[in-house]
Amino acid sequence: MTTGTQSKVKKMSPQFLVTDIEHSIEFYTKKLGFSLEFFYEDFYAGIIKDGCSIHLKTGKPSIEERNNKRENNDLDIVFSVDGVEDLYEEIVNKSVEIIQPLCDRPYGREFYIADPDGYILAFLQEA
User: How confident is the model over 54-83, as pLDDT tens digits?
Assistant: First the structure.
């Protein structure tokens, strides 16, 4: 992205609408190892891990959209990671819903999980 100025994108934070923000924060911090970056009033929060962040906003995620994404394995976020096997074992042992078990692909090894609102997260160790 060239803008002709000295601006620089420092971080990107996708926003997920969640039905229960406290439950979502607990899921991401306790099961996936994120830290709470901020909590605004009672409806908006940011979580962060290794410089990757997600913003959570209380709302009503589209059930139809979530179901369509699940049926088609459409991903909401792909995290590029090192040590994917160890991460997979950690997550499996925390009773997280696995959408796609750890598998080999031409581009690397990956697995998919779902969060409490049905967002699909992929963890990929690139080849």
Answer: 999 999 988 899 888 888 889 999 999 999
